[in-house]
From TrEMBL:
<dbReference type="Pfam" id="PF00583">
    <property type="entry name" value="Acetyltransf_1"/>
</dbReference>
<keyword id="KW-0808">Transferase</keyword>
<feature type="domain" description="N-acetyltransferase">
    <location>
        <begin position="6"/>
        <end position="147"/>
    </location>
</feature>
<dbReference type="InterPro" id="IPR000182">
    <property type="entry name" value="GNAT_dom"/>
</dbReference>
<dbReference type="InterPro" id="IPR016181">
    <property type="entry name" value="Acyl_CoA_acyltransferase"/>
</dbReference>
<keyword id="KW-0012">Acyltransferase</keyword>
<dbReference type="GO" id="GO:0006526">
    <property type="term" value="P:L-arginine biosynthetic process"/>
</dbReference>
<dbReference type="GO" id="GO:0004042">
    <property type="term" value="F:L-glutamate N-acetyltransferase activity"/>
</dbReference>
<protein>
    <recommendedName>
        <fullName>Amino-acid acetyltransferase</fullName>
    </recommendedName>
</protein>
<dbReference type="InterPro" id="IPR010167">
    <property type="entry name" value="NH2A_AcTrfase"/>
</dbReference>
<dbReference type="GO" id="GO:0005737">
    <property type="term" value="C:cytoplasm"/>
</dbReference>
C-alpha cells in the first residue's frame, strides 16, 4: 500500500478490539507494554488509526502529561507492512495534534530511535521526564531495567 493513500483518522469504539490485537502482538514480543481494553477505551480520544479494507493496520496515540509535555504511545504498524511509511504518517499526524494543543515538548520511548531521528526527534536522557517515570514507568515490569530510548522533539 503506498503511504500517500493512508488516511489517518480518530479511533472509534469499533476499533478497540483491533487496536488491542495489534498492540498485544507486539507486547508479546516485548516491544511495548500491553494495554488493557479498559485502558484503550479510557484513552480512545488520543488514538489515531489507519484502516485498510476494514482492518486497522496502524495505530498510535498522543497522551498529555502536562500542558507542556505529551508522549507518542502505542505506535504500531502491522508486521507485514512495516517500512511502508504508515508509522511516519501517524507520527506526522500526532505532531500536528501536539502543535494544535500547544504542547512545547513531544517525547516517545522507543527501541527504534533512528525512526524518530528521521522525523526530527533527538535522543535524550529519560530522567528529564519525571512525569513519565513516576506516572507510568514506575508501574512497568521493566522499571528497574528499562531498555527503551527516550526521544524528544521541541515544538
Amino acid at each position: 500500500m503506498p503511504h500517500n493513500s493512508a488516511q489517518v483518522r480518530p479511533a472509534t469504539h469499533v476499533d478497540v478490539q483491533a487496536i488491542q490485537k495489534l498492540l498485544n502482538h507486539y507486547a508479546s514480543m516485548g516491544d511495548l507494554l500491553p494495554r488493557t481494553r479498559d485502558d484503550i477505551l479510557k484513552n480512545l480520544e488520543h488514538f489515531r488509526v489507519i484502516e485498510q479494507q476494514g482492518d486497522i493496520i496502524a495505530c498510535g496515540s498522543l497522551e498529555n502529561f502536562t500542558d507542556e509535555l505529551a508522549e507518542i504511545r502505542s505506535l504500531m504498524v502491522r508486521t507485514d507492512i512495516k517500512g511502508s511509511g504508515l508509522g511516519r504518517e501517524i507520527v506526522q499526524h500526532l505532531i500536528e495534534m501536539a502543535q494544535a494543543r500547544q504542547v512545547k515538548r513531544l517525547m516517545a520511548l522507543t527501541y527504534v530511535p533512528i525512526f524518530f531521528h528521521k522525523l526530527g526527534f533527538k535522543t535524550v536522557n529519560k530522567e528529564i521526564f519525571p512525569e513519565k517515570i513516576w506516572g507510568i514507568c514506575v508501574n512497568c515490569y521493566k522499571f528497574k531495567n528499562c531498555d527503551e530510548i527516550a526521544v524528544l522533539m521541541e515544538l
